[in-house]
Amino acid sequence: MRRKYFWYVISFCLTLFYWRNAREPAWRQHYQQIYFKYPDTSSSENIRTGESTSEVYRSYPNVSENEFTCFGSKTNWAKTIEPRYRLNPHRLLVPNLINGPNNQIIGFQQSVLIAILLNRTLVLPPFYYHTTDPMKPKNIAKADERFNVDELRKLVSVISMDEAVKVCEGKLNAVFHAEMQREISLVSALPRFHFETGLQGAKYRDGVNIDKLKELYRSGNVTDDAVRPFLNTEGQNGSFLFGRLHPGLQHGSSKDVTEVKSIYKSTARCALYQHPFRQFGLRAADSLPSNWSRTQEQIRENPGSNIKTNTDAAVLLSDIKRHTPPPAHVLKMAKQFVDNHFKSARGKADYVAVHWRYDPEDFLQYLCVEHSQEKRSSMCSNIKRAMNHTALARAVAKLAADKGVKFAYVASPPTMENFMGQMKQEFQSFVDTSGFNIKIVTSEKLKDFVLHGKKKCSQKSDDIINDVISQVESVLCSDSSVFLWSVQSTWSSEARFRRKFIAKKGDRMDQNIVQLVLQEVEGTKSHRKARNGRRT
Fold it and tell me: Which position among 181, 258, 339, 435 has the lowest Cβ density within 10 Å, counted as fewest Cβ atoms?
């Protein structure tokens, strides 16, 4: 009997030894060797990305799992959802997004459209928090921090990045560039995406020091010249790509979106969609011309065959926008804030919302200095003239009084805190002397609300807090009685879409905030001239 148990023990030990030392596929070993996500050093309390979920929770013993995800809405991948458009599971489209958070959402929504047209299952890519420093490593946000992923899953076939790494065996074997770009534009982009996701699109030289390359990206001092020595350019035509590059269309061209079927024609399993963002000039629409040969129902029923022009595609884009709504936690916070600050005694939420986007360090620097164009010169000049906190305060107060609204909310970037503080003082002084019963609330109050309501939340870095505030403000502007929007702002554009097509708010009273402020500026000047004329 003892001999029998002895062999049982030996057999068990040998089996355990085998499983612990079984060789994993080469792609998975490589994936584990080089994978990382950029750490956020802005707060010692922030999540240490790259750790397993259980390790993260153990690091914060007083924080429960639900509290730890308080600034995120978990995607229920265990729940089976049958999408309206079941896409090819053997061919994937992996977006690599660009620019700020709102531009990333627009680029992602474009990616959904392209995935439908190409019949490729969509992979959820990394999103990024806002930064004004191009040399600073971008901190990564999960998709379900930006929109309701389960809602998107009702529309199209979607998989997580972790699942894509398995399906693709860690390799990207085609690049669909959204712009008409050459391979050289991918030198620094592909290794960065590799380290963020585990999907490798560029070949490295034999014996390359991956840790040294990772450190280069963590430092933020990344240039093509610094990265190029790490890449293997000894292949056919000196290419360092695993697969073929498919250049896109020239930005702003009048091409139809349906051309992607020919320019991105490929049997490659895993294709990177590089830097999608408004390449086709599409604007979501809920209607078609009266004499159109196809109905909205036909387009939605079979988009692969019935989307023949950008006009057709605009109908499907409106559906895509509806299926990428804000996450549940953002909608909940917006409702709580409105209930606390904007409801009248009769329980009605009636308020004017303003989006003042024009921070000199970011918006004006980018559009009016670094990327200055003749067609923007008038806009830039008007914005600079409107940078007057007194005129802004009076313009908003007068409009609210004219509409009989008791509350006003002003959304602005964090860098405008001092300007907004002065504007708020001017507003209060003006309504007090004018006898208006109007209360103003700014982003500062919303920040206090977010922090107070989430005191136990470990996600307290400035990146995350500002990201949540921006999303909540977008909902506040979408649901307001009147919206005063910023020109040339994708943030305002997205809020206006949600306002018109989802919140079903009439936009007849909405205005361009710069024009409204300039009317106040010119009116003040005219009043001074008249007053000076009377003195003489």
Answer: 435
Pairing of strands 244-246, 158-159: unpaired
Task: Return all residues near 505 (Cβ < 8 A) that are at least 6 apart.
Answer: 478, 479, 480, 481, 483, 499
Instruction: Please say whether the beta carbons of 97 and 276 come within 8 A.
Output: yes
CA–CA–CA angle 265, 269, 275 (5° rounding): 65
Name the burial class of residue 31, with classes exposed (0-12), middle (13-18) and buried (19+) by CB atoms within 10 angstroms of its CB.
buried
Give per-residue pLDDT as tens, 470-527: 999 999 999 999 999 999 999 999 999 999 888 888 777 899 999 999 999 998 644 3
- Concatenated DSSP letters of 15-43: HHHHHHHPPPPHHHHHHHHH------TT-
Helices (H), 119-180: 149-153, 161-167
Residues 315 and 374 in one domain: no
Q: Is residue 161 one of the residues assigned to a domain?
A: yes
Radius of gyration of the chain (CA): 27
- 466 Cβ contact partners less than 8 Å away, ≥ 6 residues apart: 129, 130, 414
Range of the domain at 433: 328-527
Residues of the chain with pLDDT under 50: 18-69, 525-536
Only one residue has tokens 């035509």, namely 237
Amino acid code (one letter) for 414 = P
Tell which residue, 303, 121, 152, 85, has the closest CA to residue 311: 303
Cα dihedral angle (139, 143, 148, 154), rounded to 10 degrees? 170
**Per-state percent for the chain, helix, strand, coil, to nearest 5:** 50, 10, 40
Is 381 in the same domain as 514? Answer: yes
